[in-house]
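Action item from last meeting closed. Structure (152 res):
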């Protein structure tokens, strides 16, 4: 999935309710459709770590005529509008989070255990990457792989 330049609405604090998220969609010129509403409700209810297919199954419980391709398109659009972000937790498909609940991930490559890592943990790395390489890291997009306490 490509990341385009964030729209001006991204400067606001991320949405924390379904209605705020729908407001943001409207403000940024997006359309509020019933499939988007169902999708956002599924995201807000489930918290993070849902794949497109899992979210599609939840939306289809309520609206069986919504196709997986519509879900993918909506996820892409909601990400472009700054409402959600996706993360790769290993070799599996991308999982989606609300932008307001974004965080880093440690994933054990032996047993698959996932630990949510607060952004502050990446602060030192982010500063060094910036000052020494002029590189801005994105601590949310990919998980840091390693071994959990049980597997190391
Ligand atoms: Zn990605
Ligand atoms: Zn997460
Ligand atoms: Zn493990």
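Sequence:
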């Amino acid at each position: 999935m490509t990341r385009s330049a964030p729209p001006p609405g991204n400067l606001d604090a991320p949405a924390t309710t379904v209605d705020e998220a729908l407001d943001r969609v409207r403000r940024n010129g997006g359309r509020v459709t019933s499939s988007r509403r169902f999708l956002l409700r599924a995201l807000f209810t489930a918290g993070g770590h849902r794949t497109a297919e899992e979210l599609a199954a939840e939306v289809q419980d309520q609206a069986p005529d919504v196709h997986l391709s519509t879900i993918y398109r909506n996820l892409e659009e909601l990400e472009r509008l700054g409402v959600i972000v996706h993360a790769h937790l290993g070799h599996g498909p991308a999982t989606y989070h609300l932008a307001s609940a974004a965080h880093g991930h440690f994933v054990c490559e032996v047993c698959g255990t996932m630990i949510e890592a607060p952004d502050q943990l990446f602060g030192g790395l982010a500063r060094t990457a910036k000052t020494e390489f002029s590189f801005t890291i994105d601590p949310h997009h990919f998980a840091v792989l390693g071994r959990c306490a049980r597997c190391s």
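Note appended to the action item: Residues 48-49, 87, 97, 103, 105, 116 surround zinc ion (ligand 2) (CB under 6 Å).
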